[in-house]
Specification:
Oligomer: single chain
Helix content: 25-40%
Number of helices: 3
Radius of gyration: 12 Å
Largest sheet: 4 strands, antiparallel
Number of strands: 4
Distance between the termini: 20 Å
Strand content: 15-25%
Structural class: alpha+beta
Mean pLDDT: 89
Low-confidence stretches: none
């Protein structure tokens, strides 16, 4: 997965399953990086089970969100890492 999408606006759906996440609606973020940080660093872990992140017409699931966060840690964009 490429990290070029981190600056794109995004919508984050969180819930214990996909149906719950969709029913609760999206949180909108000015960048995907902010959405990923919120999902991984602030949201309840159970809410990642049904998580979806919509960016530029593509939808990422929980495993892809975790992967993107790991990549952000590597490049220093996750909270607590040096830039």
């Amino acid at each position: 997965m490429n990290t070029h999408i981190l600056s794109s606006p995004s919508e984050l759906f969180l819930g214990s399953d996909v149906a719950t996440a969709l029913a609760q609606g999206a949180r909108r973020f000015s960048s995907a990086a902010k959405a990923v940080r919120f999902a991984m660093e602030q949201a309840a872990p159970v809410s990642l089970r049904g998580a979806m992140l919509k960016i530029d017409g593509q939808t990422l699931g929980p495993d892809q969100i975790r992967s993107l966060h790991r990549q952000m840690e590597i490049i220093g964009q996750a909270r607590g890492t040096r830039q």
